[in-house]
Input
Amino acid sequence: MSHFVSRFALAASLLLPAVPALAEEQAPSKPALKTAWEASREHDDNATVTTGVAKARDPLNSATSTSVLREPSIRRLGPTSVAELLRTIPGIRVETDMAEVGNSYSIRGLPLVGEGSKYIQFQEDGLPVLEFGDMSSVSIDNLVRGDLNLASIESIRGGSASTFASDSPGGVINFLSKTGEVEGGSVMVSSGLERGTKRFDADYGGHIGNDWRFHMGGFYRSGEGPRSLGYDAYRGGQFKFNITRQLTDGYVRFSLKVLDDRTPTSVTTVPLAVSGTESDPHYSDVPGFSAKDDSLNSRYINRLQQLTARGDLETLSLHDGTRVKSVALGMETQFQIGDWTVSDRFRYSRNSVRAMGSLAILALPSSVLVPTFGGPGATATYYSGPNAGQPVGPMVNGNGILTVNAAFDSNLHDIDFVVNDLRASRVFSAGGGDLTLTSGLYAARQSIGMDLAVSTFVQDAAGNGNSGLVSISNNGFPITQNGTLMFRSIGPAGTVADRDASHTILAPYGSFNFHKGAISFGGSVRFDTDAVRGTSRVDGPGDVKFIDLDGNGVPSSFAETTFAFIPADKPGQVHYNTHKLSWSTGINWRIAEYLSASARYSSGNRKGADRILIPSVVDPVTGALIDPVAVQDTVRQAEVGVKFRKPGVTVNLTGFFAKTRESNNQVIASGTNVTYMLVNRGYRAYGAEFEAAVRQGPFSLNAGATLTHAEITANSGSAGLIGNLARHQPTLIWQLTPAYDDDMFTLGASIVGTTSSYTQDVNQLRMPGYTTVGLFGRFRPVDRVELGVNVSNLFNTLALVSVIDGTMPATGVVLGQTLAGRRATASIRFFY
Output
């Protein structure tokens, strides 16, 4: 912490002294500006958006579905993660256990076959954070943090997202930074009341003379986090700075972002007891382990050996979790050339993600697991933990459960990203109306350099971070080696991977919008080309060898004979191009001052990233595509909507229909089998999305709901799933945020609910719906001081997000992902 804080202080000490000096030179004469304290008390109901459109406009004049969260709304919700915040936006489905990173996102019933964010693009200040939001071991939220730098979040769903951004046919979520329009800043200190995670936030900004302004800020935090891990897994922070020069006809802005942060790699899958029937199951905690508060991460499970993709033995440190490092430099400008408004955004980010952790893939009674992997007559003892050396009994920890875990080191040493978006726009007078023409050119290069190594171990299921490794032997011969069951994955292949590839993307695009009287209509088009070059090598079914770990010349355990490796002469070329056209057209009718109706049809695309760089899709000798369809996922969608807005009341209602062609990798578990499969499917989704906001004096109410029917319409290799509902997709997701806000107090609740869904596409085992309630309160005893309390999951609801098993297991135990239990955070914030 001291190292990061010292860098933060150094940056502030270098920048802040220049502020008064520049102000003296400019000798400004200007009216009093809004302060940070005043801005924090404002309620800005102006929903004008700039994301996913050619020019900023009133949503009542646009045939798009948009939502805006301003800073006061963001801060009062007090989210601990981007995922928790986005759960409150209609149309967006989030799969999270309330961990800070590594969550999954989808929108309006579009499929979530793998992990990450495939059809939604995350942007910061109008440019993508990464080109692809679902790269292996990297969810898009790995590189995004919410702090006091955040001014607003704009989201656009469907519509022109297909053509105003590459690889985002479902929608765009844009995190917009403060840029110094407000004078001053604040300092905030917060602490978790259960496990004492501490966090320090600060920001400061303002004008420097008449033409310059700046903003800077960041955070640092450390602690155990929302679950019992037995060690401090969160450690790190972020610093951001931007400076803007206001020009006569525009502006130019330079920005810097430095992110260096550690979080747990996996606190997701945990064992749960299940009873009842598949259509009406009952899930509960197993004895001695809370699915809401505990994790299979443990203070006693840390260092494991495995073979890297490059053939070197390494010691894996699970407690290091996921470390994200990113340095991003950006420039943004806007100016006039005659009647044309020209803007350009550029960013270069140097990024790396090192994810070391484990994921439970099987949970079985010890009486089943030990003979399954050790053979008849096998016995088990503890290798680590408080019971090291002791035998493992049939009712270990009172629950009798052991888990098989995949330990992995996913080293994305190079996911650098350089991107530029240049556009020009002009308004013409034509036919008695206004014709807006926009043309642009998007260019980007996304590197994907990564090494992956996987091994397998066995542990017990003990709460409070007390789980230990388990050794298995048979008639005195060790099956495991130092707690490791196999130096590979359970599956036939995919244990080690070595990728060094890049996507070079060029996308010209254009749009028109004609507005006359109450009617406006328009269209947009985008043509994406992607040149993919590099190498991608993975192990095959026979790529296993013996490594003599103890030096005695013979296998001392079964595990020593299971090292997966990539032969040195194994080919793995990647060399192919893709080309795809996206388009969108819509019409809007401004029925009255407060009311409009719209319709839109769009066809968008999403290119495949590293998940499809496997021999069945890409020829490893030539690098050419074997299955071109597997790298081009299309989304065709229609939407019709009605919008109403007047002072104090906003209501949006949108009906939608989408057809998706999807290719991805998916992990399926059944009994003692784990399968990694390539999915090629068609999906259809339709439904309605509702959003409303009402404000009357100090009282406000924000509400949202998404009604969705999503089903499988095609499935390569098997017709058995056709007609089934998409896994994890509830029929209804809804949000409700009532609040009271006056000069001294802010009190409110954030309520999010879902109906039931199926655990997997086979449509047999169901997950029940749930409703979680969060409370937030702010007390301002004096000017410029604010005390806050936030409580998540107030009623400690067992809320299942996903379950690996597709059918009711005979053992009565499943592995699932749940939201964290009740937790509270207290904060104090000083404004200056």
Summary: The CA atoms of residues 173 and 648 lie 25 Å apart.
